[in-house]
Protein 1
Amino acid sequence: MSTYKILTGVGLTASSFALYSNVGASVFGVMPLILSPQSKKQAKLDTEQSVYLWDFFFSRAAGPLVGAFAISASSYLAASFYVPSFVLLDKNSPITNVKQLKWILRAAAGLSIAPLPFTIAFIFPSIKSLQTYVKNKRGEATIEPKGSDSATVHIDDNTAEKKIEEWNFFHLFRYGFFTTSWLLGMVAFST
């Protein structure tokens, strides 16, 4: 097996982890429980318990997912430099030349790492608010940074509920990155 195939396989494995662990968490995990008013009522969860569950999920998922993004992106990118100048392309393949294969791998690399800046730009405010809510409920000191809005330091239950919904909205939007990266990896690997 060629080096580019091995690296593509590593990238595909890492992007599979990112995609399918998120699918599992969103379909079978804690997210449907804390987002559905009916499920929350059935499980007798209040806002504080819902945010604690979100925090439990988020704090355990963040590290491994960032690692998966980095491994996937670096593997796909490295694979793009190891594509041999001559590759036997299947006649049914959507890829018609080596240059396309290299660009598909580079696009997969970019989409693999894209959730990180997207999270910082769009999701980070919700994350910080929810983490602050958890710290406040646990009685941990929260120091208000200079020039910050005090509403982000002390949030009420209604705001916390809205922040979970906001986090989930953007989180679901990130699926576009996970899914497209995985699909491009599949195309490159099957070529």
Note: The radius of gyration is 20 Å.
Protein 2
Amino acid sequence: MDKWQHVREINAGEQLADDRLAAARARVLARLDAPASSPRARKLQRPVWLVAGALVTAAAVTATAIVVAQHDDPAPEIEALPVVTPSPTPIAPTPTPSSTSGATAVQEPFPGTTPAPGQYLRNTCRTETLNYRDAYIRVFTWPELGEYAPISAALMASNLVEFLPADPTQDRIMRWGPHNERLSAYGPWDPASGQPLGDVVAWDNLAPFDPEVFEESWPAPRSEDGPLWSNVPRDPAGLIEFYGRFGPEPTLTPEEINEQVQMSLVSVLNGNSAPADLRAGVLEALMMVTPAASQVVEAGAITFQFSFAQGYWPRSESVTVDLATGWVRESAVRYDRGDRADEDPVPSDVPDIWRTCNVEIVDGVW
């Protein structure tokens, strides 16, 4: 069974029942409250794909001439998710006896995931992105589809390693590459062989594989009042209210605000850089604000699925979070094809963006 078909069969045509949602939520909160028995980095394997994560990152495509087109066709309509009034039920940290005073202390969520002074979080991510080309040798992703239909597509992978210092005011180290590793090519097809007809050579010329790795130092991101995340609430109800205030227009409908909150919370998780208490609050806030979204708890992780009508392009997204660490294992995006689906040479079970990540604590940049 392909990954996209598996997604369609999860809770197809129905919302989660209250008792099932409550049971899933209880299991998640129990995992968040429980200390990790042996925190360690996990080597990821690609599981069943679920329509995913809030990022709109694209593989770097090197081409002599790449034209960004404006899409004039009306965007497909997506029914907004129902608005739910959140009730504040913050995660309760587990009190533990102090070794010195005998008093109780609040245990941080996701123990073993916060680097000590001098250490770094090493976030290793691999992103697979669908790129298309038309007869005019224009390379683009699906949201940039213009007047002319694509004649072929290529699935390409790029790599990024981030070193995030324990001190949030210090610079981050970023390593980019290799880029444009071609994983698959799609159409036009040779009826006799069933293989792409000449497009492998075309993609080698348009977006050649780049084995180089480039390292850059980036200034530490900041919020308005100080280091990143310093002004963001930690309790779930506060997070929902906080991200609901950042709409660009004061006339947003409740459904649009609800979707905006969802996108913001998913974005926090996808960065794999938020502190442990914020990750715990975001997970619970997602369960409060999206009861109609699919929530699948299995293999020590929870997967959230969404349909977004706002933002870059109407799309389906999912994000899978490790319950022992609060880090995102994988995320994916599938843009809506609307009435131009028959122009797409790529099977519908292939996501436009598929990202897998592994986070670990290291003693230095290496």
Note: The chain is about 20% helix and 25% strand.
Protein 3
Amino acid sequence: MTRVLLVCVALLAARGVIADVWEFGYDAPGSIIVDHREGEFSIFQKTKHIKLKVSFRCEVIRTHAIVEVHNSISSPNVTYNKVTNVVTMAYKPLQISTSNYNVIAKAARKPGCYNQNMEAQQRSHFG
């Protein structure tokens, strides 16, 4: 009986540790974190749309989104629209949606993009 109780307590304690993870895109060499969002779903919320900020002055050549949802009871449907940079998390009507989430956006720039931006800023500042 004591072992069963210990297992139940351990499962309840691990609830915050268990997470489902979705990855979209490719984590290119040289990628940097450009946006990080975290939040919660209440019991009555079923859908969230999260607009990620991945804009640079130079063109972004690759985006990588990582979505982590902490809910040991049910798992949402998670999608990522790479054109609009929107992550959508949706629970079905009867699923328990109370959970926490983390969304990380990483992006890789065109080679030389940073140098072009710095040169343009210096010319406008000193020129």
Note: The beta strands are 20-25, 32-41, 47-51, 60-70, 77-81, 86-90, 99-109.
Protein 4
Amino acid sequence: MTHLGVKTVALILNRLNLKIRRTTILDPHPGLVIASLHFQEPYPLVNEIDLLSLATMDLLIQFAYPSLSGYGKFSISFTMIRSYGEEISFTLGPAIPLTYEDGKFIPMAEVYAHISRLITKKALSFEERESTLSSIISAGLSEIEPITAREIRYRKGSYATHITALKPSRTKVKPFIVADIETLRCGDDEVHKPYAAGLMLVRPGERINDLPIETYFLQ
């Protein structure tokens, strides 16, 4: 992680504000907030770690922290645009906690450090891949001998030919429910539509014939 001066941070924040096209926020259900930054061209590169880290932290300060009530965590997702226009979305590593187990806030500096470390790791993986590909291409093609691939043999699975007897068990058998739904085919598409349902509570040790069956019909 890099330690940034006040002037450097100000310059990065200014660049960030110029690159932002719009910000969106979704809250599909209580406890979940999906905040997104949409950049304009030229888009940030994955190795612009400080810019992306500050952008992520800014989203947390705007939308995540104000909505916290108890334990909270977040994950970072990027959408990359390939040179031929295809968009690829992926999540960077595991979720990062915003609070301790007791709900107290983790210092923002520590949260920022985790963000920067996660983005740095992803950036390095891209750089290593590009470096490997470049070294392969730079080496050029050489004379090689034909290689024959070994045949991969699969073991045939063994399956039981009969149902084995139940072994005695000390596990206490618990009551369970048996249910059934009756349907009718309706319409030209013959869609199955339920018209009746029945259920029975089975209690181990009681005769099934003596147990009541509850039935429900569609009116």
Note: Residues 109 and 127 are 27 Å apart (CA to CA).
